[in-house]
UniProtKB/TrEMBL annotation:
<feature type="domain" description="Nicotinate/nicotinamide phosphoribosyltransferase">
    <location>
        <begin position="334"/>
        <end position="435"/>
    </location>
</feature>
<feature type="domain" description="Nicotinate phosphoribosyltransferase C-terminal">
    <location>
        <begin position="441"/>
        <end position="552"/>
    </location>
</feature>
<dbReference type="InterPro" id="IPR040727">
    <property type="entry name" value="NAPRTase_N"/>
</dbReference>
<dbReference type="Pfam" id="PF17956">
    <property type="entry name" value="NAPRTase_C"/>
</dbReference>
<keyword id="KW-0464">Manganese</keyword>
<comment type="pathway">
    <text>Cofactor biosynthesis; NAD(+) biosynthesis; nicotinate D-ribonucleotide from nicotinate: step 1/1.</text>
</comment>
<dbReference type="InterPro" id="IPR041525">
    <property type="entry name" value="N/Namide_PRibTrfase"/>
</dbReference>
<protein>
    <recommendedName>
        <fullName>Nicotinate phosphoribosyltransferase</fullName>
        <ecNumber>6.3.4.21</ecNumber>
    </recommendedName>
</protein>
<keyword id="KW-0597">Phosphoprotein</keyword>
<keyword id="KW-0328">Glycosyltransferase</keyword>
<dbReference type="GO" id="GO:0016757">
    <property type="term" value="F:glycosyltransferase activity"/>
</dbReference>
<dbReference type="GO" id="GO:0005829">
    <property type="term" value="C:cytosol"/>
</dbReference>
<dbReference type="GO" id="GO:0004516">
    <property type="term" value="F:nicotinate phosphoribosyltransferase activity"/>
</dbReference>
<dbReference type="Pfam" id="PF04095">
    <property type="entry name" value="NAPRTase"/>
</dbReference>
<dbReference type="InterPro" id="IPR006405">
    <property type="entry name" value="Nic_PRibTrfase_pncB"/>
</dbReference>
<comment type="similarity">
    <text>Belongs to the NAPRTase family.</text>
</comment>
<dbReference type="Pfam" id="PF17767">
    <property type="entry name" value="NAPRTase_N"/>
</dbReference>
Amino acid sequence: MQAGGRILFITMEARASQNAGRVMDGPTNPMVTPLLTDLYQFTIAYAYWKAGKHNERAVFDLYFRKNPFGGEFTVFAGLEECIKLIANFKLTEEEVSFIHKSLPGSCEEGFLNYLREIDCSDVEVYAISEGTVVFPKVPLLRLEGPVAVVQLLETPVLNLVNFASLVTTNAARHRLVAGQSKMLFEFGLRRAQGPDGAIGASKYCYIGGFDATSNVAAGRLFGIPLRGTHSHAFVSSFMSPDEILERSLCSSDGSSTCEDFVTLVHSWLSKIQWLKSLGGIFGETNQSELAAFISYALAFPNNFLALVDTYDVIRSGVPNFCAVALALSDLGYRAVGIRLDSGDLAYLSSEARKIFHTIEKELGVPGFGKMIITASNDLNEETLDAIRKQGHEVDCFGIGTYLVTCYAQAALGCVFKLVEINNQPRIKLSEDVSKVSIPCKKRCYRLYGKEGYSLVDIMTGENEPCPKVGERILCRHPFSESQRAYVVPKRVEELLKCYWPGKSGKVREELPALKDIRDHCIKQLEQMRPDHIRRLNPTPYKVSVSAKLYDFIHFLWLNEAPVGELQ
C-alpha cells in the first residue's frame, strides 16, 4: 500500500470491520489478505466445490523437515500473524471479482457465491506456543476445518511462518554465540529484502533474543526498544571546531552553565595527551572529528556515544571521545561509550578499554573504565565466534545484513500436508523417506529428564493416553525400525494448544505480548541440552512416535503403496 512513497505497515482495521463480532486486529502487513496465495489454491477449492467435497472435514499439519543453518534446532515464530489472518479471513466483493477473472471461463457463479460466504468460523487451529524451540516432523500448527477453506489458508500460513521462524532461529543462534551478557542490536533495515522483510526481521530478531532495533517503524508497531547514534557522514561533515556557534552547555542538575564547552574539551584533550601512562600513543587528533563529537554531545549530553573509526580509532577517535566525555563529566553527565565499525574489532576494543581504564585511574574519574563499546561492520555468527575466541572488550554488537537476510540459508522449507479427511487418516508417500508424512490427527508431547533438559518429542494418536511422569514409554523413530528407546519422563509437556477454536466451544489460548514471547524463547533455549544447540557438530534431538502410531504408519504405508509386478 503506497502513501507518499512509503509502504505503510498498519493493522487491517478496514478488513476487520467487515467481520461483525470479531475483535482481533488484522495482520500487521495489509498485503496479507485471502488473495496472498497461489492460484492453484483457488483452482483446487473450485474442484472440491464442483465435486461436492468442499465441506468435508480435513486436518492439515504444518511442519518442516530439516533444521536450518546446519544446526539441530529451530525457533517457531509467526503464529500471531497467522491467527490474525484467520480471524479476519473474508473475501471482499472486489476480491471475488478478481478471482472470477483469474479462473478459467468454466467457473460457475455458484462457486463465486460460495467464496462470498466463507470465513474461518468453522476452522480450528492448534499450535505450539510462539517462541518455542521445535524440531523436524513435529506439527507447528494443525488446522482442522472444511477442506476447501483450509486449503485456501495453506500458502499464506506457510508464508507467515517460514521466514518468521527462519530469522528468529538466526537471531537465537547469534545470541547463543555472543552470550547472554552481551547486548545485541538489529541494524538490518537498509539491507533487508524490502520493507516487509525489514519489519518482520526486526520483530522476529527481538523474539530470538536481540535487545533493540534501529528500525523506527518496528519500534512504533511492536514496542521494540530503539538504538542508534550517528554516521561517518555526520563526522566528516564538520571541518573544524570553529563551526560550532552555540558553545554553552548547562550542567546536568541545572545549577550552572559552561559558557565555552569547546574550550573545556580542548583542555581535557591536552591533559590526555600528556599522560605518561598512555606512552604518547597519539599526538594531534583530527579536529573535524572532534568538532563533530562536541556538536553531538551538545545535542545529546545524556546519551553521548561516538563513532570513532572515521579517521583513526586509537590516534584520534578514542582520545577525542575521551576529551568530550571528560568535559561532560565535569558538568555531571555520563557519556555512554563508543562504536567501532571497521578494523580488527577484538584488538581495537581491547586497546580502547585499556585507555578508558588508564584515564579512570590516572585522572580519578569513577566508572570511566566501564564505558560501553559497541561493534558493528558486517558481523555474523562466524565473526562473533572468532572475536570471542580472540578475546575482546565489546559490550554490544550491532548486526545487520547477515542477520536479517538469513544469508546462510534462504528458506526454512515448511510444508502443509493433509493427514486426515472425514476421520480417515491419509499419508503422502515418497521414495525419499524424509518426505513421507505422518498420518492422522496427533497429539505431541515433550518429555523432560531429571536434569530439567528436554529429552525427546513424541507424537501419539489423538485418542492414545497421555504419557505420564514416572511411567516408562517406548519412543520409536517414525521410519527406522531399529531406532527406539524407553524413556521415563520427569516432566511431560503437551505442545499443541488451541489458539482458534472455531465452533468447537473449546477454550482459546490468548496470544501473549511480544516481550513474553521473547522471554519464552530465551527460557526454551535454557531448557535445551547444550550439545543440541551448540554451533559446531550439534547432537541431533530425538523426535519419535508412540509404538501404536509407529505400527499404524507402516500399516497405512503398506496399504497405500502400489505393489509392483516383475515381468
